[in-house]
Write a structure and sequence with these properties.
Distance between the termini: 74 Å
Structural class: alpha+beta
Helix content: 55-70%
Strand content: 5-15%
Largest sheet: 5 strands, antiparallel
């Protein structure tokens, strides 16, 4: 990418300056600049597939990038994109190709891929890497957009080609930002680069000085012609070339000698990579132990390998290569004591004293190396390896095994945890099945009880409503004087009895509606009504109760109000419920304001009081069945908690929504909104449905 940017800068410079009557050099440089510019963008895209970490790229995406960029690169040096260079009154001019737009599209597509790849790569990197990526993204985008604008886009819009001379300056942005990322955010190890550069410079200087000194001294002593060394620097150059060839030659011969003399050697990085792959391949404990044993035994050429892993204090799992030895649990406990005394190091049988009991134990099971696997100072198991099939184990082998000990411990601990979860799940499943069966039986019984309860409530409510209606009617007749004149005291007492019976009727109606909701018989019977009149009637009916509690009911009835199709009985019940609650929960000598308004879309009713309010943490549950706020239960212990629940059901059944706001100790606002256009239409009857 850097090389292509350099080629683009040089070719752009050659293109933009007049070199004589022959414009062939300018024409060639112009075509090279187009190819180099697009190639630099493609190289930058490829760079983002490897920075900050190598990404898995779908083969279809790679194929699409290669095909599209290949076609563009083939077209870039042609007249279709690069165009032609010509002179006009001694000034250089350019004819843009008819497919220049395709070149710009390709370049911006490349920029889009660069941005996407870099943004996507920041998901799983640390903060320092993320800062590096952001700077690189900004550098690429700014440079690419600026270069395209100055060299292609601005000239294509007929604003002149003079801006192309400024195009190469856009690379200063790339260089500057990348340099800042190197210095500030350690994008590149500057110290290592400086150290290696100085090292190579000193090495070359030392080799040159030594060679020159030796050659000069030998020439003086043997040839008596030291001047030939000074006059013929070719010898020095050849010596430096030989010095540069030393390292590659050494690596070649190292490789050859290793192939001959160290056939059993292995690459540690490849081994670690393969082992990590196996450790993450499964969570089944036995399969994991078998696979890892195979990998380790094959790598270090052990004739057998197996794991001994505790599942609990008295049970264990043993798995490994074919025909591996078995380690009894009693011998494992002996090894546990030994490891607790000497530490969790690699135990080599040949290094132990000849008559040591641990050595005899290992030899009896054909174990040459024992690697304790310890997690949180607890021995969870052992890796046991037999004799090496060729030569002997080396210190390198021991260090490699110690290096993988922690990874083995983590993987085994995870597999053990998964196994415990599986065993627990199996036990829990049995318990769950038994509990589920019991719950189903209990649920069926509860459903029967619930149905019986609903039936009882419905029956009791019907039976109670009839005598209560009679009591209410007779009291009303006495109050009206149909049974003769009554004293003021009698009138007051009968008024209280009438109010109580009326409240009891409403309460029974509430329970009946709850029962209907439970049994699916809750119906809305919409008929044309005057909502403003209904609200006034309910306010007038509750004024006496309000005055008895030193409260003022305020209602400004609207002068004109649309006729709506509503369920009159249920809407009356909702309005009465809101006002009744406001009366009972308001403070004395305050005003309860009932508001009713309508616009083109909605009808809104609100009842606002200055009462006890609703605690904030209880407001979400307020409209649920049988729920009452804690302060409401203290204020009015005889409440049922079904009024607001039913009110919400009624309003929702009318396609409306509830209005509610409350501040503890400052008051509440309850109400509802209804859609005007929908409620102004008569409901479709069954006959209409049949006709349609």
């Amino acid at each position: 990418m850097s090389a292509l940017v350099t080629v683009w800068i040089i070719s752009s410079f050659i293109t933009d300056y007049y070199h004589g009557a022959d414009l062939s050099l300018n024409d060639i440089a112009n075509r090279v600049a187009y190819v180099a510019g697009l190639s630099a963008v493609i190289a930058a895209v490829w760079f983002t597939y490897f920075f900050p970490a190598r990404q898995e790229v779908p083969s279809r995406e790679v194929l699409a990038v290669l095909i599209f960029s290949g076609v563009l690169l083939l077209l870039s040096p042609t007249d279709y994109i690069a165009g032609t260079v010509y002179l006009d009154e001694g000034m250089l001019h350019f004819h843009a190709g008819v497919l220049s737009w395709l070149y710009v599209l390709g370049a911006f597509s490349g920029i889009g891929l660069i941005i996407r790849n870099l943004i996507r790569s920041t998901k799983n990197v640390d903060v320092r890497r993320r800062q590096q990526v952001r700077l690189v993204t900004a550098a690429f985008c700014a440079t690419a957009v600026l270069a395209l604008s100055l060299n292609v886009i601005i000239p294509l819009f007929g604003l002149g080609w003079s801006t192309t001379r400024l195009g190469p300056l856009s690379t200063l942005v790339l260089v500057g930002v990348i340099a800042y990322a190197m210095i500030k955010h350690q994008l590149f190890d500057m110290r290592l680069a400086i150290v290696r550069t100085v090292t190579y410079a000193l090495s070359l200087g030392t080799l040159t000085t030594v060679y020159f000194g030796l050659a000069f001294a030998l020439s003086s002593l043997l040839l008596d012609s030291p001047q030939s060394i000074i006059q013929n620097p070719i010898n020095i150059i050849l010596a430096l070339i030989v010095a540069f060839l030393f390292q590659p030659s050494r690596r070649i011969f190292d490789h050859l000698t290793s192939r001959i003399f160290y056939r059993d050697n292995y690459n540690k990085d490849e081994f670690f990579s393969r082992l990590n792959s196996e450790l993450s391949s499964t969570t089944d404990l036995r399969a994991l132990l078998h696979r890892v044993s195979e990998v380790i035994s094959q790598t270090i050429k052990a004739d057998q390998g197996f794991f001994f892993v505790y599942t609990n204090s008295e049970h264990y799992v043993s798995a490994g290569t074919q025909h591996h030895s078995r380690l009894p649990i009693t011998d494992a406990h002996t090894l546990d004591k030994y490891v607790s005394e000497v530490g969790d190091y690699v135990i080599v049988a040949d290094r132990l004293p000849l008559h040591d009991k641990i050595r005899r134990l290992l030899v009896s099971h054909k174990i040459a190396i024992l690697l304790p696997i310890v997690r949180s100072d607890v021995t969870v198991g052992y890796l046991c390896l037999g004799e090496r099939r060729s030569s002997h184990y080396t210190v390198r082998d021991y260090k490699v095994l110690e290096a993988v000990s922690d990874e083995l411990g983590i993987a085994i601990q995870n597999a053990l945890s998964v196994q415990e979860v599986k065993e627990l799940n199996a036990t829990l499943q049995q318990r769950i099945d038994a509990a589920t069966k019991e719950l189903r039986t209990s649920n069926a019984q509860l459903q029967r009880l619930d149905e019986a309860k609903d039936e009882f409530v419905s029956m009791a409510s019907h039976q109670l409503r009839t005598p209560l209606t009679s009591v209410k009617g007779y009291i009303d007749m006495v109050l009206e004087g149909d049974a003769g004149e009554i004293s003021d005291m009698q009138k007051h007492l009968l008024g209280e009895a009438f109010t109580s019976s009326e409240r009891m009727v409403h309460l029974i109606n509430d329970f009946l509606n709850v029962s209907r909701l439970q049994t699916g018989k809750f119906m809305i019977d919409r008929r044309q009504i005057d909502l403003a009149t209904i609200v006034r009637q309910e306010v007038d009916g509750l004024r006496t109760t309000a005055s008895q509690r030193q409260l003022t009911l305020k209602y400004d009835e609207p002068s004109s109000f649309p006729q709506l199709y509503l369920d009159e009985g249920k809407i009356r019940q909702v309005v009465m419920n809101f006002i009744d609650n406001a009366i009972y929960y308001s403070k004395e000598n305050t005003t309860i304001t009932v508001g009713l308004s309508a616009d083109d879309t909605t009808v809104t009713l609100t009842v606002k009081d200055t009462g006890i309010g609703v605690p904030v943490d209880e407001q979400a549950q307020l409209f649920t069945k049988f729920y009452r706020a804690s302060n409401a239960r203290k204020q009015r212990p005889d409440g049922t908690g079904v009024g607001l629940y039913l009110a919400k059901k009624v309003i929702v059944a009318h396609d409306g929504s509830m209005v509610f706001s409350s501040t503890p100790e400052k008051g509440s606002t309850f109400g509802f909104t209804l859609p005007v256009k929908k409620m102004a239409l008569a409901p479709v009857s069954d006959a209409d449905d049949l006709d349609s």
